[in-house]
Write a structure and sequence with these properties.
Radius of gyration: 21 Å
Helix content: under 10%
Structural class: mainly beta
Largest sheet: 11 strands, antiparallel
Shape: globular
Order of helices and strands: EEEEEHEHHEEEEEEE
Number of helices: 3
Strand content: over 45%
Distance between the termini: 33 Å
Amino acid sequence: MAATELLAVDFKAGAVLRYKLVSSRDIEIDLDSTGAASKRGKSEPQKMTEKLELVIAYYPVAIDPYGLSTIEGKCESAKVSRTALLGRNSPGDAAESLAGQTFRFQISPTGKIKDYSDLEELISRLGDKAFASTTGRQGRIKNPDMISDFSALQWHLWDSIANVEDAVAGVAPGQSWKTEQFIPLPMPIAVARETTYTLAEVQQTESGKKAVINSTYKLSDSRPKNWPKPYNGNFSMRGMFGFLRNFRFRSLEGAGRQVFNVDTGTLQSEQQRYKMHIDAGFMMPLGDTVPTVTIDQKISIQLLGD
Protein backbone atom coordinates (compact mmCIF):
# COMPACT_ATOMS: atom_id res chain seq x y z
CA MET A 1 0.00 0.00 0.00
CA ALA A 2 1.34 3.42 -0.97
CA ALA A 3 2.36 5.78 1.82
CA THR A 4 -0.12 8.50 2.66
CA GLU A 5 0.61 12.21 2.95
CA LEU A 6 -0.97 14.49 5.53
CA LEU A 7 -2.22 17.58 3.68
CA ALA A 8 -2.69 20.58 5.97
CA VAL A 9 -2.79 24.35 5.43
CA ASP A 10 -0.23 26.18 7.54
CA PHE A 11 0.20 29.89 8.23
CA LYS A 12 3.25 31.05 10.20
CA ALA A 13 3.31 34.09 12.46
CA GLY A 14 4.86 37.08 10.70
CA ALA A 15 4.97 35.34 7.30
CA VAL A 16 2.93 36.93 4.51
CA LEU A 17 1.66 34.82 1.60
CA ARG A 18 1.13 36.83 -1.57
CA TYR A 19 -0.72 35.37 -4.57
CA LYS A 20 -1.48 36.46 -8.10
CA LEU A 21 -4.93 35.20 -9.05
CA VAL A 22 -6.24 35.44 -12.61
CA SER A 23 -9.66 34.52 -13.96
CA SER A 24 -10.33 34.95 -17.68
CA ARG A 25 -12.90 33.74 -20.16
CA ASP A 26 -13.62 33.81 -23.86
CA ILE A 27 -17.35 34.10 -24.50
CA GLU A 28 -19.01 33.22 -27.79
CA ILE A 29 -22.70 34.00 -28.31
CA ASP A 30 -24.45 32.47 -31.29
CA LEU A 31 -27.80 34.24 -31.54
CA ASP A 32 -29.19 31.73 -34.03
CA SER A 33 -27.38 28.42 -33.67
CA THR A 34 -29.86 26.64 -35.98
CA GLY A 35 -29.92 29.24 -38.75
CA ALA A 36 -33.70 29.35 -38.44
CA ALA A 37 -33.91 33.14 -38.56
CA SER A 38 -32.16 33.61 -41.86
CA LYS A 39 -32.64 32.11 -45.30
CA ARG A 40 -28.94 32.63 -45.90
CA GLY A 41 -27.98 30.35 -43.00
CA LYS A 42 -26.27 30.97 -39.71
CA SER A 43 -24.83 34.35 -38.80
CA GLU A 44 -21.36 34.76 -37.31
CA PRO A 45 -21.18 34.30 -33.52
CA GLN A 46 -20.41 37.36 -31.41
CA LYS A 47 -17.32 37.17 -29.21
CA MET A 48 -16.03 38.91 -26.11
CA THR A 49 -13.36 38.38 -23.45
CA GLU A 50 -13.14 39.18 -19.75
CA LYS A 51 -10.09 39.01 -17.48
CA LEU A 52 -9.64 39.75 -13.77
CA GLU A 53 -6.12 39.99 -12.34
CA LEU A 54 -5.68 40.21 -8.57
CA VAL A 55 -2.75 40.33 -6.18
CA ILE A 56 -3.84 39.41 -2.65
CA ALA A 57 -1.58 39.25 0.39
CA TYR A 58 -2.59 37.09 3.38
CA TYR A 59 -1.41 38.23 6.82
CA PRO A 60 -1.66 35.94 9.87
CA VAL A 61 -3.46 37.79 12.66
CA ALA A 62 -3.83 35.01 15.24
CA ILE A 63 -2.38 31.52 14.71
CA ASP A 64 -3.79 28.37 16.31
CA PRO A 65 -2.13 25.25 14.82
CA TYR A 66 -4.81 23.01 16.36
CA GLY A 67 -7.86 25.19 15.85
CA LEU A 68 -8.97 28.23 13.90
CA SER A 69 -6.43 30.80 12.73
CA THR A 70 -7.51 34.34 11.86
CA ILE A 71 -6.16 35.63 8.55
CA GLU A 72 -6.44 39.08 7.01
CA GLY A 73 -6.43 39.34 3.25
CA LYS A 74 -5.49 42.58 1.56
CA CYS A 75 -6.12 43.09 -2.14
CA GLU A 76 -3.05 44.97 -3.33
CA SER A 77 -4.20 45.32 -6.94
CA ALA A 78 -7.25 44.55 -9.04
CA LYS A 79 -7.49 45.01 -12.79
CA VAL A 80 -10.23 44.03 -15.24
CA SER A 81 -9.83 44.03 -19.00
CA ARG A 82 -12.76 43.38 -21.29
CA THR A 83 -13.47 43.39 -25.01
CA ALA A 84 -17.17 44.09 -25.38
CA LEU A 85 -19.57 42.65 -27.92
CA LEU A 86 -20.00 44.74 -31.06
CA GLY A 87 -16.90 46.76 -30.20
CA ARG A 88 -18.67 48.95 -27.64
CA ASN A 89 -16.81 50.38 -24.67
CA SER A 90 -17.69 48.93 -21.29
CA PRO A 91 -18.02 50.97 -18.10
CA GLY A 92 -15.53 50.47 -15.28
CA ASP A 93 -15.78 47.12 -13.50
CA ALA A 94 -16.90 47.05 -9.86
CA ALA A 95 -14.33 44.30 -9.14
CA GLU A 96 -11.55 46.87 -9.61
CA SER A 97 -12.68 48.58 -6.40
CA LEU A 98 -11.23 45.58 -4.57
CA ALA A 99 -7.84 47.32 -4.71
CA GLY A 100 -6.88 48.40 -1.21
CA GLN A 101 -9.73 46.47 0.45
CA THR A 102 -9.11 44.15 3.40
CA PHE A 103 -11.13 41.27 4.80
CA ARG A 104 -10.75 38.70 7.55
CA PHE A 105 -11.71 35.07 7.86
CA GLN A 106 -10.90 32.08 10.02
CA ILE A 107 -9.42 28.89 8.63
CA SER A 108 -8.74 25.46 10.08
CA PRO A 109 -5.56 23.41 9.52
CA THR A 110 -7.61 21.27 7.13
CA GLY A 111 -8.25 24.34 4.94
CA LYS A 112 -11.89 24.90 5.83
CA ILE A 113 -12.80 28.59 5.91
CA LYS A 114 -15.05 29.56 8.79
CA ASP A 115 -16.98 32.79 9.30
CA TYR A 116 -17.56 34.28 5.86
CA SER A 117 -19.32 37.37 7.28
CA ASP A 118 -16.52 39.84 6.50
CA LEU A 119 -16.19 38.49 2.97
CA GLU A 120 -19.94 38.57 2.44
CA GLU A 121 -20.08 42.22 3.51
CA LEU A 122 -17.28 43.02 1.05
CA ILE A 123 -19.13 41.23 -1.75
CA SER A 124 -22.28 43.20 -0.96
CA ARG A 125 -20.39 46.51 -1.13
CA LEU A 126 -18.90 45.51 -4.47
CA GLY A 127 -22.35 44.59 -5.74
CA ASP A 128 -23.64 48.09 -4.96
CA LYS A 129 -20.91 49.52 -7.19
CA ALA A 130 -21.99 47.40 -10.15
CA PHE A 131 -25.05 49.53 -10.92
CA ALA A 132 -25.30 52.54 -13.17
CA SER A 133 -25.60 55.85 -11.31
CA THR A 134 -28.83 56.71 -13.10
CA THR A 135 -31.98 54.68 -13.69
CA GLY A 136 -34.21 54.71 -16.75
CA ARG A 137 -37.58 53.33 -17.64
CA GLN A 138 -36.15 49.83 -17.20
CA GLY A 139 -35.26 50.57 -13.57
CA ARG A 140 -31.87 49.68 -12.13
CA ILE A 141 -29.24 48.63 -14.68
CA LYS A 142 -26.34 46.37 -13.69
CA ASN A 143 -23.09 46.86 -15.56
CA PRO A 144 -20.90 43.87 -16.46
CA ASP A 145 -18.64 42.87 -13.56
CA MET A 146 -16.31 40.08 -12.40
CA ILE A 147 -17.30 40.06 -8.73
CA SER A 148 -18.22 36.37 -8.89
CA ASP A 149 -14.71 35.58 -10.10
CA PHE A 150 -13.19 37.08 -6.95
CA SER A 151 -15.76 35.17 -4.88
CA ALA A 152 -14.94 31.84 -6.52
CA LEU A 153 -11.18 32.39 -6.27
CA GLN A 154 -11.38 33.22 -2.55
CA TRP A 155 -14.10 30.78 -1.47
CA HIS A 156 -12.42 27.78 -3.14
CA LEU A 157 -8.73 28.67 -2.74
CA TRP A 158 -7.97 25.80 -0.33
CA ASP A 159 -10.76 23.41 -1.41
CA SER A 160 -8.37 20.67 -2.53
CA ILE A 161 -7.18 20.29 1.07
CA ALA A 162 -10.45 21.14 2.82
CA ASN A 163 -12.39 18.35 1.14
CA VAL A 164 -10.07 15.40 1.77
CA GLU A 165 -12.39 12.69 3.13
CA ASP A 166 -10.21 11.76 6.13
CA ALA A 167 -7.65 14.47 6.82
CA VAL A 168 -6.05 12.56 9.72
CA ALA A 169 -5.54 9.41 7.65
CA GLY A 170 -3.89 11.39 4.84
CA VAL A 171 -3.99 10.80 1.09
CA ALA A 172 -2.14 8.22 -0.97
CA PRO A 173 -1.05 8.74 -4.60
CA GLY A 174 -3.91 7.73 -6.90
CA GLN A 175 -6.58 8.54 -4.30
CA SER A 176 -9.48 10.79 -5.39
CA TRP A 177 -12.03 12.93 -3.56
CA LYS A 178 -14.85 15.26 -4.64
CA THR A 179 -16.48 18.57 -3.83
CA GLU A 180 -18.95 21.04 -5.33
CA GLN A 181 -17.96 24.61 -6.21
CA PHE A 182 -19.90 27.54 -7.62
CA ILE A 183 -18.95 28.78 -11.08
CA PRO A 184 -18.08 32.39 -11.95
CA LEU A 185 -20.25 33.56 -14.84
CA PRO A 186 -20.95 36.76 -16.80
CA MET A 187 -24.60 36.47 -15.71
CA PRO A 188 -25.75 36.42 -12.03
CA ILE A 189 -26.86 32.80 -11.84
CA ALA A 190 -25.94 30.26 -9.15
CA VAL A 191 -24.55 27.17 -10.90
CA ALA A 192 -22.26 24.52 -9.46
CA ARG A 193 -19.63 22.20 -10.84
CA GLU A 194 -18.50 18.88 -9.40
CA THR A 195 -14.74 18.84 -8.95
CA THR A 196 -12.81 15.61 -8.53
CA TYR A 197 -9.31 15.91 -7.08
CA THR A 198 -6.70 13.17 -7.46
CA LEU A 199 -3.29 13.06 -5.81
CA ALA A 200 -1.17 12.30 -8.87
CA GLU A 201 2.26 12.14 -7.22
CA VAL A 202 4.48 13.49 -4.47
CA GLN A 203 7.79 15.02 -5.52
CA GLN A 204 10.78 15.58 -3.28
CA THR A 205 12.38 18.92 -4.20
CA GLU A 206 14.97 21.25 -2.69
CA SER A 207 12.20 23.50 -1.39
CA GLY A 208 10.19 20.70 0.18
CA LYS A 209 7.91 17.77 -0.56
CA LYS A 210 5.33 18.78 -3.13
CA ALA A 211 1.99 17.14 -3.88
CA VAL A 212 0.77 17.32 -7.46
CA ILE A 213 -3.03 17.29 -7.38
CA ASN A 214 -4.95 16.91 -10.63
CA SER A 215 -8.58 17.94 -10.98
CA THR A 216 -11.42 17.28 -13.41
CA TYR A 217 -14.74 19.11 -13.67
CA LYS A 218 -18.29 18.43 -14.73
CA LEU A 219 -21.63 20.15 -14.33
CA SER A 220 -23.40 19.46 -11.03
CA ASP A 221 -27.11 18.81 -10.70
CA SER A 222 -27.14 20.65 -7.36
CA ARG A 223 -27.32 24.36 -6.70
CA PRO A 224 -24.31 25.78 -4.84
CA LYS A 225 -25.02 25.99 -1.11
CA ASN A 226 -22.81 28.95 -0.21
CA TRP A 227 -22.99 31.15 -3.30
CA PRO A 228 -22.52 34.76 -2.15
CA LYS A 229 -25.19 36.95 -3.74
CA PRO A 230 -23.75 40.40 -4.50
CA TYR A 231 -26.94 42.12 -5.68
CA ASN A 232 -30.20 43.04 -4.01
CA GLY A 233 -33.57 43.92 -5.49
CA ASN A 234 -34.75 43.83 -9.08
CA PHE A 235 -32.56 44.97 -11.96
CA SER A 236 -31.84 44.58 -15.65
CA MET A 237 -28.45 43.73 -17.14
CA ARG A 238 -26.63 46.00 -19.52
CA GLY A 239 -25.53 44.51 -22.83
CA MET A 240 -26.29 41.26 -24.63
CA PHE A 241 -26.95 39.26 -21.48
CA GLY A 242 -29.78 41.68 -20.74
CA PHE A 243 -31.58 40.36 -23.85
CA LEU A 244 -31.11 36.66 -23.10
CA ARG A 245 -33.24 34.61 -20.73
CA ASN A 246 -33.92 31.05 -19.58
CA PHE A 247 -30.33 29.85 -19.51
CA ARG A 248 -30.07 26.07 -19.66
CA PHE A 249 -26.65 24.66 -18.79
CA ARG A 250 -25.95 21.70 -21.05
CA SER A 251 -22.41 20.64 -20.19
CA LEU A 252 -19.11 21.50 -18.55
CA GLU A 253 -15.82 19.71 -19.06
CA GLY A 254 -12.26 20.52 -18.14
CA ALA A 255 -9.24 19.77 -15.99
CA GLY A 256 -6.61 21.38 -13.80
CA ARG A 257 -3.35 20.88 -11.93
CA GLN A 258 -2.26 22.12 -8.53
CA VAL A 259 1.08 22.04 -6.70
CA PHE A 260 0.89 22.02 -2.88
CA ASN A 261 3.99 22.14 -0.67
CA VAL A 262 3.35 19.45 1.94
CA ASP A 263 6.24 20.52 4.19
CA THR A 264 5.25 24.19 4.41
CA GLY A 265 1.48 23.66 4.12
CA THR A 266 1.31 26.15 1.25
CA LEU A 267 -0.56 26.19 -2.04
CA GLN A 268 2.09 27.11 -4.61
CA SER A 269 0.31 27.12 -7.96
CA GLU A 270 -2.82 26.03 -9.76
CA GLN A 271 -4.07 26.03 -13.34
CA GLN A 272 -7.67 25.33 -14.34
CA ARG A 273 -9.42 25.29 -17.68
CA TYR A 274 -12.93 24.25 -18.61
CA LYS A 275 -15.55 24.91 -21.26
CA MET A 276 -19.29 25.41 -20.72
CA HIS A 277 -22.11 25.06 -23.24
CA ILE A 278 -25.34 26.92 -22.52
CA ASP A 279 -28.67 27.22 -24.34
CA ALA A 280 -30.70 30.40 -23.90
CA GLY A 281 -33.81 32.22 -25.06
CA PHE A 282 -34.56 35.81 -26.02
CA MET A 283 -36.44 38.23 -23.78
CA MET A 284 -39.03 38.26 -26.59
CA PRO A 285 -39.23 34.99 -28.61
CA LEU A 286 -37.96 35.19 -32.20
CA GLY A 287 -39.52 32.22 -33.93
CA ASP A 288 -37.47 29.03 -33.78
CA THR A 289 -34.13 30.71 -33.10
CA VAL A 290 -32.03 29.11 -30.35
CA PRO A 291 -29.25 31.30 -28.92
CA THR A 292 -26.26 29.44 -27.48
CA VAL A 293 -23.43 30.62 -25.24
CA THR A 294 -20.01 28.97 -25.05
CA ILE A 295 -17.62 29.96 -22.26
CA ASP A 296 -13.95 28.97 -22.31
CA GLN A 297 -12.76 29.64 -18.74
CA LYS A 298 -9.17 29.78 -17.45
CA ILE A 299 -8.06 30.25 -13.85
CA SER A 300 -4.49 30.55 -12.58
CA ILE A 301 -3.12 30.94 -9.06
CA GLN A 302 0.56 31.59 -8.34
CA LEU A 303 2.40 32.13 -5.05
CA LEU A 304 4.62 35.17 -5.54
CA GLY A 305 8.17 35.31 -4.27
CA ASP A 306 8.47 31.53 -4.24
